[in-house]
Amino acid sequence: MSSLFSPLNVGALTLPNRILMAPLTRCRADANHVPTPLMAEYYAQRASAGLIIAEATMAMEGNSAFWMEPGIHSDAQVAGWKTVTDAVHAKGGRIVLQIWHGGRACHPLLNGGAQPVAPSAIPIIGDEVHTPEGKKPCVMPRELRDDELPGILAGFKKAAENAKAAGFDGVEVHGANGYLLDEFLRDGANKRTGPYGGSIENRARLMLEVLDAVISVWGADRVGLRISPLNSYNSMIDSDPVAITTYIAQQCSARGLAYLHVMRSDFFQAQQGDVMTPARAAFKGVLVGNMGYTADEAEQAISAGQLDAVAFGTSFLANPDLPARIAAKAELNAPNAARFYSPGPAGYTDYPTMAA
């Protein structure tokens, strides 16, 4: 595992290993979306990751798409996150915040009755939203007007400023999994005309404008982007996933982004293809792969130069000492899916380490 455990420069950060923790929504914030002491314990337990990418966090008020997910738009949320970053840094770790707008995956029950917004009035079919009243079907979104988009950009920029105040080491823009920026990018969800619809360049415009706004706060060397060109989660599809991957990778490379984080496949296996190869060809910075990698496959891919690091999701969720377990070739704890989104420490901070 010499490649996985070799240091890596990611923009302004130096990582001691290439075993990253993927962003994982866990719904352990409080009712005001303020991070809790339990979250600080959870992330500090996983500080041996080369880099922790903290969970999807609401950039601005009123776009909740999960019950009890954290935000970064209030002073209390900034203070809550500061306890998390302090705890991770005290253990020698590095942590960036994934900032996010839920788009059409939001629900009126989570947002004071407000209708969700999207690039086009096309609802998510088949998936449901976690709400205080249980899981509910997604609702019809309202199409955003062009003159509303500067407000979205301002919200992301403020979230980036708040993430800096909260002590993070950088930010990752969430451009994946059928949320707002991904909805604009992929033509299955974006049917609008004008400057934000039609061509790949137009559909990518909002994502790239958000990146530029965040870079203006942090500098490109502390900013990453996550995309999921193949993932059909949240009723997503695109007619040419390789083309959008290539274009986004080129644009990120031109901006000198710290890293590009690519989800390589589809949760539901509805769409097939290779997006890692075109991403590697088009992006000259640090390429992070995600989805279903074993430690052996990650080692081989890094050794072959196919990518530079791998973000592990549920295996890191269930194994707070994942790098040590990989190094020792030890057995891994199995994740408890029934506790992914439930409150409290069960299935969250109670997974045993090897020593335990």
Could you describe the 3D structure shown?
The protein has 356 residues and is α/β, with parallel strands linked by helices. It has a single domain (8-339), classed as Alpha-Beta Barrel (TIM Barrel), CATH 3.20.20. The chain is built from eleven helices and 14 strands. The strands form four sheets. Strands 3-14-13-12-11-10-5-4 form an eight-stranded parallel beta sheet. Strands 1-2 form a two-stranded antiparallel ribbon. A two-stranded parallel sheet has the order 6-9. Helix 8 (276-282) links the parallel strand 12 (259-263) and strand 13 (286-290). Helix 1 (37-45) runs parallel beside helix 2, helix 3 packs parallel to helix 6 (205-218) and helix 7 packs parallel to helix 8. It is globular, with a radius of gyration of 19 Å. The two termini are 24 Å apart. The model has no long low-confidence stretch (mean pLDDT 97).
